Amino acid sequence: METAKRLPVHMEEERAIRGPMDLPFLILVVLILSVGLIMVFSASYASAYYTYDNPAYLFFRQGIFALGGAAAMIVISFMDYRNFRKWAFLALVASIVLLVLVLFIGKTVNGAKRWIDLGPFGFQPSEVAKLAVILCFATMIEHYKEKMRTLRYGILPFGLILGVIGFLMFKEPHLSGTVLIFATGAALMFVGGVRVGWFLGAGLAVGGAAWVLVNNMGYAMDRINIWKDPFIDARDKGYQTIQSLYAVGSGGLMGLGLGRSRQKFLYLPEQHNDFVFAIVCEELGFVGACLVLLLFALLIVRGYWIALHSRDRFGTLIVIGITTLLALQVFLNIAVVTNLFPVTGVSLPFFSYGGTSLMIQLAEMGIILSVSRQMPAKPAG
């Protein structure tokens, strides 16, 4: 009898990354990205013409970043995602350094210092911090295993990381970004095995702290009052919410038609950014908006499916983290546009204008595709 020859470890690992990427997930990403680019052009051409004397200026910029992000997504999908363990803590340290720098050299927009201006473009360090936290938490949870049920290993190191990043983002201030990072980190800790009792206690503590902060932060309390009744300051702080609701309501069932929005003609602020979904509702109507939400829902469900079928725990954790972050951003953005939540600075993934954030989102999709390429093969027959 011939003895089967075993391949060296490095060759077995190389073979493991030669599987096909998850085609349904890739198709959904491309569809959402394509619709998002169309809506960026439709929503931005009036303001781009007014500001830059070129109605396609913002669309072309977003398109360039989309091509770069798509290329990065494909390249990352062919990488072995297990190597991200080596970079997780370096990414975390880099994100903390960037969050400190933005407090000193950041660009102030609408009273918040969240951007680092690099000339041709700028970026928010919080976008880097989101991915860094996911990679770092996934690495730590995989390493600690059963120790995640203890205070020393399952709570303290994770709480310290979230506390440092949360404090730096609070100083910008960037409350919505802080909520996203805390919620994503909590989801990973829950999946990692932290006892439910810790979450109940943390929930009460965070709720109490949030109540104190909101009542002592003028801008946060103003947003809550405007959320309750935007017409109490219809010409200033409630203006954006009111114009958003006008856009959503005027779309009706089938919409006014692609490109026929009225609110984008300098009535609705941030019409191509945080409030682009209001233009989707106005132009494509209730039916079109539901189709967009269906695409996002399918992408999120497929992401969790890939997480459940991952080859190892590390792959499961990073896909759960990225997919949960995506789901939270979609929910919060649409909740703000429809005035279900007070106005925050949460953009709609793949739709809102913003080149660096789009590239990071596509890179995250590349990580999920990398995990999908290493899923165990189905048994033959």
What does this protein look like?
With 381 residues, this protein is an all-alpha fold. α4 runs parallel beside α7, α5 packs antiparallel against α7 and α11 crosses α12. The radius of gyration is 22 Å and the shape is globular. The chain starts with 8 loop residues before the first helix and ends in a 9-residue tail after the last helix.
Q: Which structural class matches the secondary elements?
A: mainly alpha
* Beginning-to-end CA distance, first to last residue: 27 Å
Q: Indicate the mean pLDDT.
A: 88
Query: What is the topology, as strand order, of the major beta sheet?
Result: 1-2-3
Helix content: 55-70%
Poorly predicted segments: 1-14
Main beta sheet: 3 strands, antiparallel
Number of helices: 14
Strand tally is 3
Inertia-based shape: globular
Measured on Cα atoms, how large is the radius of gyration?
Answer: 22 Å
Order of helices and strands: HHHHEEEHHHHHHHHHH
Strand content: under 5%
